[in-house]
Every structure is written in structure tokens, then in C-alpha cells.
Amino acid sequence: MTEFTVWAPKPDRVRVDVDGALHEMTRTADGWWRAEVSCRADARYGFVLDEDATVLPDPRSARQPDGVHERSQLWQPAPDAWTDAGWAGRSICGGVIYELHTGTFTPDGTFDAAIEKLDHLVDLGVDFVELMPVNAFNGTYGWGYDGVLWYAVHESYGGPDGLIRLIDACHARGLGVLIDAVFNHLGPSGNYLPRFGPYLSAGSNPWGSSINLSDADADEVRTYIIDCALRWMRDFHADGLRLDAVHALVDTTAIHLLEELAAETDALAEELGRPLSLIAESDLNDPRLITPRDRGGFGLTAQWDDDVHHAIHTAVSGERQGYYADFGSLATLAQTLKHGYFHAGTYSSFRHRRHGRPLDTATIPGTRLLAYTVTHDQVGNRAVGDRPSQLLTFGQLAVKAALALGSPYTAMLFMGEEWGSSSPFQFFSSHPEPELARATAEGRKAEFAEHGWDADEIPDPQDPETFLRSKLNWSEVSDGDHDRLHRTYRELIALRRTEPDLADPWLDHMSIDFDEQQRWIVLHRGALSIACNLGSDAVSVPVTGELVAAWEDPDIASGATVLAGHSFAILRTERVQ
What we know:
This protein is α/β, with parallel strands linked by helices.
């Protein structure tokens, strides 16, 4: 017998359809419905609410073989699915994370195809693979942030069995796996949760209705989220989660959902005997996210740091539009790298208000923040999805890499960054509903037209070519300057492991010199100095020593080092006074 359960406090009657046969369910006082049915191990099933004959998928469905509007399927991993019993896990702090989108990482766009590229990542030297959302969403391809069945694995990628094979293969190669989890909103197609219970609140965020975290009956909704998060780490052996846009989680309770989730994750880590990490994507510049719980914080492992991205990108590229307006100078770059946040209780011209809070660099190590030169957001949310590699020289890309990988922060790369991929990463979707497809395309064009873009230049998210253009071109990896940049990334990542000074996590131990006019900056990390020339002309930098790594071989003299334009050099140095 198989027990079917569902939390559905809204309907007065619930039946479970198992392979086409309806069975009455019994309600308990807490709003849960239960029924025991004799059925196949892979039976298709769904729930019928009140007198509506529509069969709805299980909110906790493990598998949706026919899409998010159809019946769920019972699923359990094969007994011999896992071979990673010897995997002891690893902490993300100080490591290198590689963010990828399963559908565009390879030509086939599946978990199994991704396995074939894992040796490339091992050779590169990364420590973790971070998968953009793999939960079930409507359509065959998309970014994945419009998921509606959070417990199910997207079928086009290979479903739950394919995800197991990928994670198992990663662990066999010493790679940890992080999964991008979206708990702040639900997608526009296939969201049947409101018919079961009060999953949504009266509030809203930029992506739709907010999740009910603190209104009436919120306890079961919170449990739904926490159980889902733990399931990725327990049942799928993931080593942690990236939590999407946590600033959109509106929780007015005394114990915030994130604090509760962090405590539950730590308990699971102790039970499993391996580290588990939670990384927040946050727009708040609020150090409470990564402050330990015994000091009044939420106790998350780390958080994305967009200020570091903005400071590096604007200083190298010269872009200043939108939220880049307050960034661009070397002084801003130095301040951000030194203190973690640029906006720390200071005025943000983009927001027209004060923003952020200072990070206590004496007690919170830099490895609690992620530094990166590009992410799926920072590319895909541009009007035409153009990468920095489509706008900058290879030398400028190398300088950005040296600043991020040479910093005290935990580092993150976006797929293809390591060789300067020429493929864009555009916003794409495959909504089968004509009205939703049209609204998505028109909304995208209207959004960027307001910022001065020609609407005809904005790629149609629903055009299959938009998706296909965003796939990586792996033939570039060994080609000319692409190969040279790839080798530079490998060298920089290797230095993070072999040089103790680069493993020092404390921002207070790093000093920074720069010259705004000559466009050079030097990060001093113990006996190592990372000297970068952001300008196009050669400059003399007052630092000297033994050459460790470089983009262009510098001219090292007794009192200074001459760097070619758009280049960096790492020196084992005695600082010139």
C-alpha cells in the first residue's frame, strides 16, 4: 500500500486519482488529507479538489514526466543510484564556484551531457558546480526561475535520475554541487498551489505574488519551503543551495525563515557528517545574513556581493548606466574590495536613498562574500544579453579575473567566462500558452525600450534562436586568445590553492594602493602583490619583486614595475617605500 498525503486546508473534499481511479481522502484537523492505495511503484497520480474534475499535480511531486500541468509520478531512486559514499563534502568558503545553466552549458542541454564536461572543470581547478534552477517549470527550456513545482526536477534536463547521475559524477571528481533554489515567488504557468491552501500572501514583488511566510497558516508554507530545501541536500546529495533574491522573502515573524532554514541545514549537516552551505543572493548589503546566529544574525554561509562585481566591472569597462552610476573610479574599487560593500549606510543615487550597512571585517571573513566579474543576472538582464567578453579586450578580461580571483573573497565564475566565451546569455523562455508567450516577449521589449533601446534590437525570449544563441561554443576553448585566457584562469585558480597569502580570508590583512589618473591598482596580500593596469597605456607601478604570474610579461626594475596596457602581474615582492 502507498500512502498519499497532501496539505489542502481550502477545499472541503479531496480525492486522489491513481492511474485513473479516484479514491476518497480523509482530512485531519491540521488540513492534511490522507489515503492508502494499492498501486504500482511508478503510478501516475494527482488530486481532485471539491467537485472540479481537474486532476492537479502534487505540490510535493517528485517527478512530472508530462509537464507541470499533468499528473505527478511516484519516484524513488534506484537502490544502486549512488556511488558517492566516500564523499566527505567541503566548505565553500575560500573556494571557487562555477555557475552554469544546464540547458545552455552543452549542445544537448542535459545533465548527462554536462557530465561529459566535468573534466574541463576539474582541470580548471574549480571546487563547486552551481546549477541554475533545476526545479520543474512550464515549457521545455528557460532560465528556471519561474518554477511552480519546487520538489520536481525539470524533465528536459533529465529528471531526478539525471540529476542524481550528475551530482554523483561531480562527487566522484571531487566537485561539490550547489543548487539554485527559488522560494520567493512562483511562475505564471502551472501554479496550482493557491487552490490547495494559502501559499501566497497579499503582498507582491517584481515577479508576482509574495509567498506567505508570516500570515495566517504560514507555518505549513514555511515547512513546505524548508522541507524542499533540505530534500535537495539530503535526497539528492547537494552540498548546499544558492537562495534566490532573499530580499523578496517578506517575513515579519521573530524568527526569520532564513534563520530557521540555516539552523535546520546545520542540523542536517551534523546528521550527514559533511558540510552544507547556504548562499544568499541579496540586494540589501545586510551583514546580518552572514552573521552567526549566536551574535544575532541569520547564520547563512555566504552571500553574493554585487558591489564587488559593479566596482570591478565599471572600473575596467567604463560603463556607468543604471545601478553602475555610483561606481567606476579606482577609489570606489579599492574601498569596495577593502570593505566588502561600497554602499554601507551610504547614499545610493540609483535608489535615491541610503543603502546597506557596514560589514564588521574584524569578525566576518571575506570568504563569506562571493566575488565575481559576471553572473547569469549581470549578462542575461542586459538588453541583448551581451557578455563582457563581447565588449572588452582579452587583457581587460584578464585584469578582471586577477582582481576577483586575487581577492580574499570566495570566487565565482559564470560558464564560459574562463575562456572569454563569445556566446551571449540572453533571456529565453518557451511558454506554450500563446497569451503568456506574447506578454513575455512584449514585456521584455517594453522594459528596455523605456531605457532607450530600440525595441527591434531586443531578442524575443520565445524565439528558439534566442535560446540556441545562448549555448556555449566549446570549440573556442583552445583557440588563440581564448586558450590564453583559459590558461590564465587556471593559473590564477591554482595560485589560490598554493599560495598561503592568497588563502588569507581577512579583509583587514589586505592593503591597496592605486593611482586614479594612471589607472593602476595594487592589492597587497602578504608577500604577494597583484598589480593591475586598467588603462590602455603602459604605466610604471611602484612595486617590484619576483614574477609569479602575468598576462603580459612586465618590465621589473629595482624600484618599479612597468605594466603593459590592460594587463596584470602578480609579484612576490618587497614593497617600495
